[in-house]
Automatic annotation (TrEMBL):
Keywords in alphabetical order: Oxidoreductase
Keyword Nucleus found: no
Source organism per UniProt: Clostridium frigoriphilum
Documented EC number(s): 1.1.1.-
GO molecular function, one term: oxidoreductase activity
Spans through the membrane: none
Similarity comment text for this entry: Belongs to the D-isomer specific 2-hydroxyacid dehydrogenase family.
Pfam (any one): 2-Hacid_dh
Protein name listed in UniProt: D-glycerate dehydrogenase
Top-level division of the source organism's lineage: Bacteria
CDD domains with a match to the protein in the record: GDH (cd05301)
Domain D-isomer specific 2-hydroxyacid dehydrogenase NAD-binding: 112-287
Domain spans labelled D-isomer specific 2-hydroxyacid dehydrogenase catalytic: 6-320
Length: 325
């Protein structure tokens, strides 16, 4: 009996690939780049399952090319805004993601960006490497202190909670906002629930941890930047379109906020050009989950979801539950 066929759109850690190969015939994109649209449409044909990335645009044409034989697209990431869920559901294709396993890594990266921006690490590093350091100047690379300041957490889900928990080590006052209150966060961390406007007005540091929905596109724009402290720092590790990038550029240029740390961008992989030359912005290319431990766990979760579905079982992480019904 022929093995079922799985296509992987980009190389992921070997442990996940080997797990799939124990059960299926696995083909992996051999290129050190994402697939072109035409390549993706062609490669999913005749496959029983596809393991895809957030950078893959799984639209109607791709799903229709996969056809009825394909039972699952396992997304390698928590988000799944890259997939046409409506079309997938109509075709009976299960869509899964990889929640839970990247909470620590993402929260860690958000803190890294917060610190790097606040203490001007990137600029100071370049200055030193370029041989410009000759003596200590008391006014050189003055940053912003973190300890004892007010932290604003936007989105109190698993990652937002994990991020806020680390603030206790810095004796920070924690404010948070969400569509529902997180009583565990209030009880265990002493976090204070406020509305969006008051959070932005009071916080010295704002970190975004909301899902990408129609209601969160440009959640932070000109209006929001105008009410933030001119000494504040904003960090985004959730989804690029949550921030209006042009408004961010304006806010940074006009001194409405002090700095920004970004792991995601509004029109990935493109970045608003002016951000690239700003000394008060730190940018990294979607590395919030980029630890060997986490990326391996993500691959294993995606592989296990594929194995279950192709064995006739329900996956652990289905995002379009209607298909299972």
């Amino acid at each position: 009996m022929d093995k079922k066929r799985v296509y992987v759109t980009r190389r992921i850690p070997d442990e996940a690939i080997e797990l799939l190969r124990k059960h299926f015939d696995v083909e992996i994109n051999p290129c050190d780049r994402g697939l072109l649209r035409e390549e993706l449409i062609e490669k999913v044909k005749g496959k029983d399952a596809v393991l895809c990335l957030l950078t893959d645009n799984i639209d109607k044409d791709v799903l229709e090319s996969a056809g009825n034989k394909c039972k699952i697209f396992a997304n390698y990431g928590v988000g799944y805004s890259n997939i046409d869920i409506v079309t997938a559901t109509k075709q009976g294709i299960i869509i899964t993601n990889t929640p839970r396993v990247l909470d620590d890594a993402t929260a860690d990266l958000a803190w890294t960006l917060l610190m790097v921006v606040s203490r001007r690490i990137v600029a100071a590093d370049k200055f030193t490497r370029n041989g410009a350091y000759e003596s200590c100047d008391p006014m050189m690379f003055l940053g912003r202190e973190i300890t004892g300041k007010t932290l604003g957490v936007v989105g109190a889900g698993r990652i937002g909670f994990n991020f806020a928990k680390k603030a206790k080590a810095f004796d920070m006052k924690i404010l948070y906002t969400d569509i529902v209150r997180n009583h565990k966060m209030e009880k265990e961390l002493g976090a204070i629930y406020v509305d969006k406007e008051n959070l932005l007005k009071e916080a010295d540091f704002v970190s975004l941890h909301v899902p990408l929905l129609s209601s969160t596109i440009h959640y932070i724009g000109e209006k929001e930047f105008s009410i933030m402290k001119n000494t504040s720092v904003i960090v985004n590790t959730c989804s690029g379109p949550v921030i209006d990038e042009k408004a961010l550029v304006k806010a940074l240029k006009d001194g409405e906020i002090w700095g920004a740390g970004l792991d995601v961008f509004e029109y990935e992989p493109n970045i608003e050009p002016e951000l690239l030359d700003m000394y008060n912005v730190s940018i990294v290319p979607r590395i919030s989950s980029a630890t060997m431990e986490t990326r391996t766990k993500m691959g294993i979760v995606a592989a296990e979801n594929i194995i279950k579905v192709l064995n006739g079982e329900n996956p652990d992480d289905c995002v379009n539950m209607e298909v299972l019904k």
